[in-house]
Amino acid sequence: MSALTLSAASLLVLSHTGCKNGQTTTQPPVEATKTIADIEQLSPELSTIIPDGARLEKMATGFTWTEGPVWVQPGMLMFADIPSNSIRQMTSDGKVTIWLQPSGYVAKEPFGGKEPGTNGMTLDDKLRLTVAGHAARSILRFETMDPKGTKTILADSYEGKPLNSPNDVVYGPDGSLYFTDPPYGLPTQQDDDPSKKLKINGVYRIPNATAIKAGSAPNRAKLQLLIGDLPRPNGIAISPDNKWLYVADSQQKKWMRYPLKSGGTVGEGMVFLDASSAEGTGTPDGMKVDSQGNLFATGPGGVWIISPEGKHLGTILTEKPTANVAWGGEDGKTLYLTTSDAIYRIPVKVVGYRPWIH
């Protein structure tokens, strides 16, 4: 894989705005850029995160649009191949098998769109797999790792109207579940889709999601709308100190940051980083944080590595649309990437933040 080289104009863009201590700041221009193989280094700080000579390793290929990766024991990466309506599992040596198919849309009538499967996935503190249903228009939890076992619907509607298509999920420190709900899992993926009943594309919270009993109906009255003014909320993450909720907006090509309040709701949001003028294929989508608070966020060109202060430290270059990332390996120092057609991995120096372990 050849490296992607950014233009001089693009490098000026990458001296973007960021935020520190809740305030928007302007980063100084990048003085030097270093491209080695699959890494674009924009700051010397990146050397403390990515090992020298690190390269992307292609683990499996032949897919259409992979998403929602999560590492589960013993040594397995779960991910969705959305167009094939399946959840798959991959061993550490790259062997892939289908875990569940169909995973999302199950009605007899033809779906009529291109993304009938499920999307983002995570684990709770009991290591139960929680899935953004996407075309299923729900949030579901598998009570065991048996795909035919008991499933619990945690959310499927808001104020009596069906959800759009839940996209990504993350658990908060109190056992609440946060998720995004853009229209990408609807047949047309547009706001005027005939099946779209909610006017907004929201970010929601399910209070005490981990305490919901297996097989019970969702407590629809308790679902909370936290954010309703983003055109396309997509990836979602929480900082390891539980102070910040990050949301990617794939239409505006921005990452937003919201202070987490003690009751689990959020304060006023601010632009954490703006990638709207950056060059490269892809847009802000899925993301994860490491144990030091750095954000690993898919965006133009690949995976952006962003400091807790909002500084773009560098990019893992993929040269193709990249949907999401996940921490894997026994030590949490392997980053897995899901792209348009393949699964990759790359070693890192930092430990990935996995709340169900930490």
TrEMBL record:
Domain SMP-30/Gluconolactonase/LRE-like region per the UniProt entry, residue ranges: 65-340
A molecular function GO annotation: hydrolase activity
This protein's UniProt keywords: Hydrolase
UniProt KW Nucleus keyword: no
Pfam families xref list: SGL
Keyword RNA-binding: no
PANTHER family, per database record: LACTONASE DRP35, LIPOPROTEIN-RELATED
Identification of the protein by name: SMP-30/gluconolactonase/LRE family protein
Organism: Terriglobus albidus
